[in-house]
Amino acid sequence: TTNMYIIATISLNQCNFGLLSVLKEICQAKGNRDYYFEYTECDSTGSRWRVAIPNKEGSCTGLPDPVSGTECTFSCAAGEFLEMSSQQCTQCAAGTYSLGSGIRFDEWDDIPAGFTSLATYMDSGPGGDEALSCNNSTWVPQGNYLESNRDECTVSLIYAVHLKKQGSVSFEYQYVDNNVFFEFFIQNDQCQEMDTSDQKWIKLTSNGEWGTHTVNLKSGTNILYWRTTGILLGSKIVKPVLLKNIQIEGVAYTSECFPCKPGTFSKKPGSSSCDICPRNTHSGKGASSCTPCNEENEYSSEGSAECKEKTFCTEKDYFQIHTPCDSDGKTQIMYRWIEPKICMENVTGAVTLPPSGEKKPCPPCNPGFYNNDTATCSPCPPDTYSDGTKACQECPAGTEPALGYEYKWWNVLPANMKTSCFNVGNSKCDGMNGWEVAGDHIRSGAGGSDNDYLILNLHVPGFKLPTSVTGTTGSEFGRITFVFETICSADCELYFMMDVNRKSTNVVESWEGTKEKQSYTHIMTKNASVSYTWAFQRTNQAQDTRKFVNDIVKIYSITVTNAQDGVASSCHACALMSQQSGSSCIPCPAGHYIDKDTNQCKECPPGTYLSMHQIYGKEACIPCGPGSKSNKDHTVCFSDCTFTHTVENQTLTYDFSQLSPVGSIMNGPSFTSKGTKYYHFFNISLCGYEGKKVAVCTDNVTDLSSKDLQNESVDFVNFVETFICQSTIIPSDGRGFRTALSSQSISLADTFLGATIETTLNGVSIKTDLFPEPPKKIPDVNFFYRSPQATSSCEKGRNGIISLRCNPKKSGRGELSVPSKCPAGTCDGCTFNFLWESAEACPMCTEMDYHEIEGACKGGVQDTEYVWNEPKLCTKGVSLPGTKTSPCEAIDFWLKVGAGIGAFTAVLLISLTCYFWKKNKKLEYKYSRLVMTANKECELPAADSCAIMEGEDNEEEVVYSNKPSLLGKLKSIATKGNGDNCESVQLKSSKNERWVWG
Questions:
Q1: Is residue 639 predicted with pLDDT exceeding 70?
Q2: What interhelical angle do 893-933 and 966-974 show, nearest 10?
Q3: 675 and 771: one domain?
Q4: What single string gives the DSSP state of each residue in 512-561?
């Protein structure tokens, strides 16, 4: 009956995969007898009974009677266990340990009993059968830690524990890849999730570092879930989550002590933990001491369970170093065995250590340092400078030192740099130098194994702007530039990481495989204490060998500008309070440059912005791009949401103010190789706000795990604030998440280049075939942006282009779209293209955009209507005039005027015709008379005739004495030709003397 009661009290439902651990705890207290003791469940008064349970089923005779047990909340101290026979706490023996009221899991040769690894795939995507590929996905034990799966499957590590009192769970983890979602949550025995949402999502850790996560537990059944979900958006394999040292506090008691795992020992009774065996020793499970190895032919690293045989030495067992400068200024190359030395050089086939090289002159000091006839280089005093080869000199009047670091000679490691070696699985490379100086470069060291992280760290306490730019509102406080190359035969990777204000180390950029010699620059937009870290790993596959020791990375130079405690290699001009010699420098007001002639501050011209990197000379004022203007402080160029363009003698004026609020577009869905559904989400800030970047993309997984998110501005990882940004969205129904997840937020546009109708600006071009052709009458207005931050795939940074297209059918803010050929918004990963169609992208209306239509004249009234030209390709601007009404007549006034003028002209022509006809008839009559009266005998003498016609006083008048009749005319015609007849004509003269012809 008692056995049935105990089994009934721990009966499990379907969701409690890990409650088998409770059975494990019950069965741990078996002794050499035929029975063992266990407690019943606590009743309502907090009491319980100790009962005896037979080891073999059916053996129910001779068992001790039940006795009253300890209190339900009773527990032993660390290093003790509850001896059930006497119900007293007893110290653990040597070689074992106990947490008292807790349990620890630190041995991962296999998945311990009570843990369950369950693979699920909530969304099979378009393939339908992809869930079958997750059957082999599981958490993999790696000895000292557990490793999550490397594919896209969702795998949960589950453990159930029953607590008699409130407790906690803590674990160490390494989580470096944001392509993996790592969550930890707790359910009760009813499959209801506990209220630990603020601690559900785990923070990222830097490469090679372990983080610790602790969550409080309530009494009763707690089902613990460690769940990872990989999202493969490319060919890059995700880096797994590592988990170790799980410790649970709050269990009522432990009835026996745990033996120390191999490689550890506890030499004293009552231990709460086990110590690690030192190097060249080993131990088995439950050891109270470590056994030394035979150091002649055996070796072992720290925490080893056995000794390994040494092999003969090869070239991979030693490395070269450059010695520091001696008193004579000489250095030489020397060779040393990699420690710990795990090879033998006095056997056949082994190589010996090469002899040291000849002594050579030391390289010069780095800029900003000087050599005062000693073996070391010292920094120049304040307000002085040196190129590293000469003594330090004071800066001339009107100048100030250009503070910073410039490391290009590597004889010794600079004082503000340190190097180390770290391995996630063991500590065999602890104490080694991860990097070694090599004259003109610094290179990665040998390490203990190929998957070690070789760490190089540079600490900058803060940044100090030059005096002349102090107080300006620029966004650049300093920049770091380094030149490097990698030479690899395996899957090596170099990480460049940054830790701001000692919060958390985040990966800025990484490079895989062999990379040619190149330069990388990162700009600091925040004045803070920062640590820059370079981490090099030859391979991420867990292995305890050194096959790729010749895979190296070299850094040739590291330069940091405006470093707070930096030294100066040169001096730059600064503004003077006066032109007197020795005057101190003063800060220039915002937007002012230093005039070369007077060393005085002068304001930049309108439409230019001041380069924060160099403000000496008018050329420091950089012109803004087309369609942009500078703000009051001349720190940035921006668009005020207006644009003007002249085409075919017509000026098009645009007003994009309605499009200034942040626009969003989420394309897709897209699917990974295993069918995981995801979206690309873009936020776009087009114009306005005087250059302020208002588009924000958030990593909500990181936000949920950041307790101090509201107390301090979070940068680089939690969100990005820019003109155009992109996030990857995993929908809530895609992988069983309760809410949609937003991650991998990146900036696509930090700088506004300009707005133009051209397709190319500052080297950024639009492919004309990405979108349909725009209307010929109204061209697209293209907004160009750039993000100068270089990446491994985009050496010149990323570019963003937003094409605004007039589309009257898209009312309001219209519609954003990406190219159909490139659904991710980009075809090459570096230039992102967007099309924004809206009626608000049309030019403002003018009088040329409408025409009038006159109506018919009705009742003496005529209406004139005004209508827009179709299609209407304008917005706002002038309004359409109203209907105009005017009086009208039956016959138009001008028609009457025309008819009158025509009639008058006709009458005039007829009158002139009659007049000239009548005059012509008179002349004809006169001529006829002269002809009829003339004959041969009647001709005047020539002289007399001429005399009559000459002179002014000889004016004469012809007078017809008789008017001839019609009958006379006929008679003269009939007698014409008879020389006998002649009609006399009287010539009337003004003179007294007259001639009469007969």
A1: yes
A2: 50
A3: yes
A4: ES-EEEEEEEEEE-S-S-EEEEEEEES--S--S--S-TT-EEEEEEEEEE
